[in-house]
């Protein structure tokens, strides 16, 4: 049994397993799935459909070709040649232990055997297993194809090399492994959630607030803070210049106050279950679970991309993923330069159901930024006080693009003078058809005076060379047009 | 004492009081502040500076003129003629009760007396006060000028009319009042936070995770979910088609499991305080509190605007606020039509420190949408399968705009035929200087076939009338230009 280095076996394809399958597949891995439930296949396809629309556009560059998906009829078939087993079966210790025991004879000795468990400690799962050193917890968050966090927990016998490899692979999948050094039931995030959940159950039971009011109290207030900073950094700010020690001294006494009911756990009586279920229906039953899923994904993509623009938190994870994928440096400029290669993000579409007009200019702006970078007007050059400002733009919108569609932009330099640069971008769809053109005049500026200035020699040299190469090309169709002009 | 219907007295201008002052001021209220702390004035100005950059751009229309800010030297001076007192002094019951007692002779009988307390119940604050019927809790979330949530809690004696008025005013301030029907220590949101906070203290104390790791476990995972749905709606999705009752039956048993430490509260020993403070330093001390505040605000604006684009959660609150502000319907078309009037949002700026080029087209796109609406191509018309698609665009970027700057767009209709509409937008800054022009050719389309079609008579009639009026105007400078063409 030799492990293929990009093949994962996903065991159990509920909402978590299916999410893992999507995350691996859309990052170019081959995925074999085993789930004895007859409805598993349909659910897997639904999750994959959602992921295909939402995930590729989180990246600002081209994504790998999708891997091969196989659904199998046995654990043996699924795990053959896999270098990673991801277990996502129900939260029952007996069946999880049984699975690990069954895997012992099926996997190679360098295969990662990871459990998605929300609660069990890895040492409990691995107890008595001959493959104990391969067993770890990799606990993701739903939807797995969008949220970056994975809690990675080893136990005493877990091979540190396998933990390090898991860390590296998760990062290649655009995820962030949070290595938990000391195992504990429910790891870290779920303990925080469980605490809030128990308090929420009390609030409903005591008739203080309905499920909807509790959700509003989260998403209109501290939920917005927690999406980007978390608990401690938020409180650090609240503490002000005096720092965290001061904050703790000030708010410490609250621990003595009756501010939570969490000295005890409410009993989930039949009445309480009914009351929560009917409040939840009142809050959300006008939307089906599928609709809620799609709404959630659209919201998460918008929020994640907002944080990406800020290079902060989960957005910084996305940027790091793009950076690892890297961009090829064009080594010759005889033809147009490929400056953008990406998918249309969910949040770039509008009420007409297609990519909004302003996003065409955003993509052309990205193409211009990339071209600037290629000629040497990079972050360092800009930090030194030099940049280009666009002063005039002409766009032809020739065809539509939908969320998830691929697009590329090829750029020609029409003019490259010390103070002036003229670019012509051609945007093409997946099949190579022209969907838009952009023509842009940029001036080189001194960021101090905000006035035009000549480009530095290093930039000028490269720009001049490309402009000269491109002057030999046939002028592309659509140059120099005014709006509405007859062709 | 007659209350001015748009004057608030802010008592205590710490980070919460200053946030309230900013929220009221930037929504056009007069604000008088009283805080005996000599450093209060400086802090107030810092919060106001942050708010002026961040808040106006949350709206997609023009915001009211800022109210008048007065800092006063006494409670009496501050509360004169106020119709709303907002108390945000330290969390000590004795001084809060003393303040309410002092206010009794200073406020009119229809003045709202609201406390920002995180923990105390309003009946405790109002106990024995002659103005008990005016006392309520209005508990906001930091930063008050950005987060929409306010927990509004009355007690038995609170006048329902005053509660209803508070609800209405908070909504005018762009906030969402969550009316808590049954008072309880720490209200709702802080109880959930306090539960998570106590669990987090255990995790640090037990050496499971550092403050930074706990923050990562939140903001890379469930924090992103909670920013847009909350706890119950998220779990409803996880429960799938079987509904919330099924979810509870499945996960109920976890309540018996040792998944939180919250049967007891950790003691804040000196060691634990030091350990948290030093972990927090390791995590965040490379940034000052001011820097963290600005980063947080930028992140929140980006996340809030992302949710606004989705019309969901906190974003739906922002849209509702815009809708209440309303847009004036132009009643005659002899001159250009004012189609946009707004501030530049924080997330519209780029590495050059000014509004990014794509946002010019976004603003022109909004102007086009507004013009379409004016001629009758509104949501209903689009839902019926008709719309306009932009096919060609020309932009001149003439001057820069910075975050928080005001801009307006005036639109001229250059052409209004059954299948074709040509618009010319002029973008002006606060002082009326031209900062950009946009020329756009749009085709009327059938959204079913995605091909051109003639506009319906109702739209054509209005469009034709405006085009005729505008044909009598002097043609604006810059029409019909190609990129780089000599003037």
Q: Helix coverage percent of residues of chain A? A: 40-55%
The oligomeric status of these chains comes to: homodimer
Beta-strand residue percentage of chain A: 15-25%
| H/E element sequence of chain A | EHEHEHEHEHEEHEHHHHHHHEHHEEEEEH
Distance between the termini of chain A: 64 Å
Give the largest interface pair and sizes.
Answer: A-B, 154 and 153 residues
Class of secondary structure makeup of chain A: alpha/beta
Q: State Rg of chain A.
A: 27 Å
Mean pLDDT of chain A: 90
Give the strand tally of chain A.
14
Individual helix count of chain A: 16
Summarize the structure.
The first copy, chain A, is of the alpha/beta class.
Write up this protein.
Two copies of one chain form a homodimer. Chain A has 487 residues and is α/β, with parallel strands linked by helices. Helices cover 40% and strands 19% of the residues of chain A. In chain A, the strands form two sheets. An eight-stranded mixed β-sheet of chain A has the order 3-2-1-4-5-6-7-8, with helices on both faces. In chain A, strand 11 and strand 12 form a beta hairpin. The longest helix of chain A has 21 residues, at 289-309. Chain A is globular and about 75 Å long. The model of chain A has no long low-confidence stretch (mean pLDDT 90). Chains A and B meet through strand 8, helix 7, helix 8, helix 9 and helix 10 of A and strand 8, helix 7, helix 8, helix 9 and helix 10 of B.
């Amino acid at each position: 049994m030799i492990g293929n280095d990009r093949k994962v076996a996903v065991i159990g394809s509920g909402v978590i397993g299916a999410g893992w399958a999507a995350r691996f597949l859309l990052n170019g891995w081959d995925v074999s799935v085993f789930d004895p439930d007859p409805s598993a296949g349909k659910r897997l396809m639904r999750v994959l459909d959602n992921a295909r629309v939402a995930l590729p556009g989180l990246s600002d560059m081209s994504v790998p070709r999708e891997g091969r998906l196989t659904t199998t009829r046995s654990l043996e078939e699924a795990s053959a040649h896999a270098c990673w087993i991801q277990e996502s079966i129900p939260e029952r210790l007996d069946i999880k232990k049984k699975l690990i025991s069954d895997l012992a004879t099926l996997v190679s000795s360098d295969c990662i055997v990871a459990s998605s468990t929300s609660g069990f400690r890895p040492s409990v799962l691995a107890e008595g297993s001959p493959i104990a050193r391969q067993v770890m917890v990799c606990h993701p968050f739903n939807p797995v194809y969008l949220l970056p966090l994975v809690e990675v927990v080893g136990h005493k016998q877990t091979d540190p090399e396998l933990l390090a490899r898991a860390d590296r692979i998760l990062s290649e999948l655009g995820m962030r492994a949070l290595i938990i050094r000391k195992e504990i039931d429910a790891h870290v995030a779920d303990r925080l959630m469980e605490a809030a959940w128990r308090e929420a159950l009390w609030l409903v039971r005591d008739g203080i607030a309905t499920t909807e009011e509790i959700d509003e109290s989260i998403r209109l207030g501290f939920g917005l803070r927690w999406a980007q900073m978390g608990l401690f950094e938020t409180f650090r700010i609240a503490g002000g210049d005096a720092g965290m020690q001061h904050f703790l001294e000030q708010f410490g006494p609250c621990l003595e106050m009756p501010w939570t009911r969490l000295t005890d756990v409410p009993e989930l009586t039949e009445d309480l279950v009914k009351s929560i279920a009917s409040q939840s229906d009142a809050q959300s039953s006008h939307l089906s679970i599928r609709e809620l899923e799609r709404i959630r994904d659209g919201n998460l993509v918008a929020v994640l991309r907002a944080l990406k623009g800020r290079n902060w938190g989960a957005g910084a994870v996305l940027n790091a993923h793009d950076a690892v994928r890297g961009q090829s440096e064009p080594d010759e400029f005889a033809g147009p330069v490929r400056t953008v290669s990406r998918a249309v993000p969910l949040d770039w579409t509008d009420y007409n159901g297609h990519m909004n007009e302003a996003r065409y200019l955003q993509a052309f702006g990205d193409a211009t930024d990339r071209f600037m970078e290629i000629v040497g007007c990079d972050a360092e050059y800009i930090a030194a006080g030099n940049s280009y400002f666009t002063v005039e733009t002409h766009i032809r919108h020739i065809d539509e693009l939908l969320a998830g569609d691929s697009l590329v932009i090829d750029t020609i330099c029409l003019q490259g003078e010390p103070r002036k640069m003229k670019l012509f971008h051609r945007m093409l769809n997946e099949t190579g058809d022209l969907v838009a053109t952009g023509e842009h005049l940029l001036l080189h500026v001194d960021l101090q005076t905000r006035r035009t200035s000549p480009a530095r020699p290093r930039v000028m040299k490269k720009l001049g060379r490309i402009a000269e190469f491109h002057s030999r090309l046939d002028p592309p169709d659509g140059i120099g047009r005014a709006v509405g002009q007859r062709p």
